[in-house]
Amino acid sequence: MSSAARSAAARPATRRPRTSTAAPRRRATLVEVPAPAPAVAGNGVFALVVVGLLVGGMVMLLVLNTTLAQGAFEISSLSRTQNQLAVQEQQLLQQVALEEAPDSLQKRAAALGMVPVTSPVFLRLADGAVLGIPHAAPVQVRALPRTGGPATAATSTTDAAQADPAPITDAAARDTAPSTGGLPTAGTPR
Q1: pTM
Q2: Residues 143, 145, 149, 150: is their CA dihedral positive or negative?
């Protein structure tokens, strides 16, 4: 015999047959539940919520449109100002160009008593040499406004120049040799 069969024969049967001695179970009684009432929100609350959303949306649109319109007015005003400033800039540039013109500069220099250069002199910075021979500019007598009575107003500028000859105070006219201002000339060594 096999060992499994021997162990099965050696063991007594411990199984008992089932008896129906247990207490019978009670079933719960079923009771019919009443049908639930339909859950419907009141029409007034729903209408109030919808109207509130519509009013809020309209107010937001009004604020947005007002802000955009104000920005448009501001942009229009700023562009108008920019155009005016551009026109003013062009006028100022034209005025500067007219003032820089040679004719305008010559007229203003003559009004200040300046005369054109007849013999230009140059200074060479490398060695300090004076290039050219300076000549005195011709003296021009300008008529100064007089603050006297009618008797002094009748004299002309030529009469004033002949009656009171002014001494020459121009240093270049008195000095026949050009001054180098302490700088060595082209012929002298340093």
Answers
A1: 0.38
A2: positive
Give every CB contact of residue 143 below 8 A, 6+ residues apart in sequence.
156, 157, 160
The structure tokens listed for 133 are: 């021979």
Residue-by-residue pLDDT tens, the chain, 190 positions? 566 656 655 565 566 656 666 667 788 888 888 888 877 656 788 889 999 999 999 999 999 999 999 999 999 999 999 999 999 999 999 999 999 999 999 999 989 988 888 888 999 999 999 998 888 887 766 666 667 655 544 444 444 444 444 444 444 444 444 444 444 445 444 4
Under 8 Å between Cβ of 131 and 123: yes
β-strand partners of 123: 130
Q: Name the burial class of residue 135, with classes exposed (0-12), middle (13-18) and buried (19+) by CB atoms within 10 angstroms of its CB.
A: middle
140 and 113 Cβ atoms separated by less than 8 Å = yes
Distance CA 181, CA 176 (A): 15
CA distance 134 to 121: 6
For the chain, the residue count is 190
Tokens of 39: 């859950």
